Amino acid sequence: MGEKDTRDVLLIEDDSGDAGLVKIAIRRSHHLCRLHHVMDGQEAMAFLRRQVGHADAPRPDLILLDLNLPGRNGHEVLEEIKADSLLRMIPVVILSTSGAERDIKTAYMLGANSYVSKPMDVEAFTAAIHSIQDFWFGIAQLPK
User: Fold this and answer.
1) Which of 18, 68, 74, 107 is deepest in the core (most CB within 10 A)?
2) Which residue in 3, 43, 2 sits closest to 19, CA to CA?
3) Predicted confidence (pLDDT) per residue in 85-120, tens digit
4) pLDDT tens across 40-58, in order?
5) Structural domains of the chain, with CATH
6) Cβ neighbours for 33, distance < 8 A, ≥ 6 positions apart
7) Taking every annotated instance into account, which residue ranges of this chain make up the domain Response regulatory (predicted)?
8) Please, what is the average pLDDT of the chain?
């Protein structure tokens, strides 16, 4: 696999424990991925728009978005991403501890590409991340 086969994943997650689990899962995956981690919606939008501090940020192939974020919550960040004609084609997977029906419905109404409840077990969490990667980088066709 060449450099262009490496996928860029943007993780928007304020919980350092969950972020660490995602990092470990991606490192152990058979997909070549560069993980970029931001802690809140404001930094996420700066990364996606290549603004202050993120001028060289790559365009992610996939966004993993937590709902419970400081400042702008995940639904607001999702709405902003999907309202932006330059960003809306990037798949956004909600990765949340919430299994509440209203959170799931709202995420899909705002354009989420899928919604995954974070498993509490480390092995199940890793398996969920690998399944997300297998689908988006192995089965689905993404725009270039």
Assistant:
1) 74
2) 43
3) 999 999 999 999 988 999 999 999 999 999 999 998
4) 999 999 999 999 899 999 9
5) 3-139 (3.40.50.2300)
6) 6, 7, 8, 9, 26, 133, 137
7) 8-133
8) 94
Cβ neighbour number for residue 31 with a 10 Å cutoff: 17
Residue 34 near residue 7 (C-beta atoms within 8 A) = yes
Q: Pairing state of beta strands 7-12 and 62-65?
A: parallel
**Which pair of structure tokens corresponds to residue 72?**
């702008």
Q: Tell me, what's the pLDDT at 52? A: 87
Q: Can you tell me the distance from the alpha carbon of 105 to that of 66, in angstroms, rounded to the nearest whole number?
A: 15
| SS3 annotation, the chain | CCHHHCEEEEEECCCHHHHHHHHHHHHCCCCCEEEEEECCHHHHHHHHCCCCCCCCCCCCCEEEECCCCCCCCHHHHHHHHHHCCCCCCCCEEEEECCCCHHHHHHHHHCCCCEEEECCCCHHHHHHHHHHHHHHHHHHCCCCC
